[in-house]
Amino acid sequence: MAAFSPRVFSGMQPTSTLHLGNYLGALVNWVAMQKTHDCIYCVVDMHAITQGLDVWGGPAELTRATREVAAAYIAAGVDPKQSIIFNQSQVSGHAELAWVFNTIARLGWLNRMTQFKEKAGKDRENASVGLYDYPVLMAADILLYKATHVPVGEDQKQHLELTRDIAQKFNNDFAERIAELGLGTGDLGYFPLPEPMIQGPAPRVMSLRDGTKKMSKSDPSDYSRINLTDDADMIAQKIRKAKTDPEALPSEEKGLEGRPEAENLVGIYAGLSGETKAQVLGQFGGSQFSGFKAALVELAVGKLAPIADEMRRLLADPSHIDAILSDGADRAAAIAAPIMRDTKDITGFVRRR
Questions:
Q1: Closest by CA position to 14, among listed 54, 39, 49
Q2: What single-letter DSSP state applies at residue 52?
Q3: Are 59 and 45 in contact, with CB atoms under 8 Å apart?
Q4: Residues contacting 175, CB < 8 A, separation 6+
Q5: CA proximity to 55, closest of 15, 87, 12, 19
Q6: Which of 116-130, 216-230, 305-319 ranks highest by mean pLDDT?
Q7: Helix, strand or coil for residue 278?
């Protein structure tokens, strides 16, 4: 039984500025994966417009944010020569394959998607069809490149399961046609069933103002997060102002229970240093927060300020970023085109020869 060639696909939306949570939760792993996998990293601008203009900010903001997210990828260490970096809308196959998959996916499947319910809120009748259909486009994003592995957070696991369901149903519905055309991969079908990529316990980065809430770019307080565009002074200021409690740091992880702000700052230190929480507490257990925050400031500034500096350098030359995105789109399209042609042939579309 033949196997699919391993390939990683992942992406982020260009809505607002990326922050420390995006860096520790995704970008650090993306950079590491380049050494072991063929990687495609997309700026998913078509997903960004599925919510209201007030969320994604309109055309000028989408252009700016798309370049900024691409700059963040590169500044964090994603190599545009080694990996493919592009924005989704430059490869038409994403939309084309999504339409084919719209005929494969079932309403019952989409009705179970919890993220739509959360984002649409109580006024679901006013949500866009695009927001409802977002998971089908995500399936197309992945399968357009026959990606076999997808690094996903908890909030996207359900969507990846849907991707697998769509791939399986396509393979089953068109099994005879796939065999007739000789387009299957052994007895695995035409599309792979992509696997979630779990890179160990990625730190769950919480708000600097409330350790019970996830760090978010939608939080109205800029002091709740460290943006990847923040300079050294701003990073230091935000950490010094981060909410804590009056107790000293414990010497063991069990002592962090019921202390969300302490656990969050220790987790951030661990994520940035590459250590475990136990190792961090072994070093700082018994310390007051003033001393620990000073050490965290030094570590965070050392790791994050160079990323912000490099992003500013890249963003000063938008044409350079556009050239990287264009080159990435050409390379992505070269992978996608034969897969899209096969899909049309399997489906029975008469296409230009």
A1: 49
A2: -
A3: no
A4: 189
A5: 15
A6: 305-319
A7: helix
What mean pLDDT comes out for the span 162-182?
96
The confidence score (pLDDT) of residue 1 equals 41
184-207 tens-digit pLDDT: 888 889 999 999 886 655 568 999
Residues 100/347, Cβ–Cβ less than 8 Å: yes
Can you give the pLDDT at residue 201?
A: 53
Q: Are 164 and 120 in contact (CB under 8 A)?
A: no
Report yes or no: 20 and 205 within 8 Å, Cβ to Cβ.
Answer: yes
**3-state class (DSSP) for residue 1:** coil
Catalytic residue IDs? 119, 214, 217
Work out the angle between the directed axes of helices 318-347 and 59-76 (0-180°, nearest 10): 100
List pLDDT tens digits, range 62-101: 999 999 999 999 999 999 999 999 999 999 999 999 999 9
Residues forming a β-bridge with 84: 40
Give yes or no for a contact between 228 and 311, defined as CB atoms under 8 angstroms apart: yes
**Size of the chain, expressed as the number of residues it contains:** 353
205 vs 200: CA distance, rounded Å: 15
Strand 84-87 vs strand 8-12: parallel, antiparallel, or unpaired?
A: unpaired
Q: With contact defined as beta carbons under 8 Å apart, do 102 and 338 qualify?
A: no
